[in-house]
Amino acid sequence: MTKSELIEQLAVENTALSKKEAELVVNTIFDSISQALIGGDRVEIRGFGSFTIRERDAREARNPKSGDLVKIPPKKTPFFKTGKELRERVNNGTCC
What we know:
This protein is α+β, with helices and mostly antiparallel strands. It contains 3 helices and 5 strands, in the order ααβββββα. It has helices spanning 3-13, 19-38, 84-92; strands at residues 43-45, 49-56, 59-62, 69-72, 75-82. The strands form 2 sheets. The chain has a 3-stranded antiparallel beta sheet with strand order 1-2-5. The longest helix has 20 residues, at 19-38. It is elongated, with a radius of gyration of 19 Å. The two termini are 16 Å apart.
């Protein structure tokens, strides 16, 4: 499912929301999660999962095309861990 499909489904299932309002809701949620992660916070959505930041150390790797040694700087990477309820729903094939 893409972001636009999510917005469309939200607007269809909630007739009180226009498509523009549904887009605002989805963008607000995604922006809030992003801002929390940028600030170093952990975001937990009960029954769904949690978003955290993992720090990766600097390392050396090889360019597969040329074989040259390349230095990769340290970086922060978003990480998502599924919640127990979501894992069980996916495994059982049930929804909502």
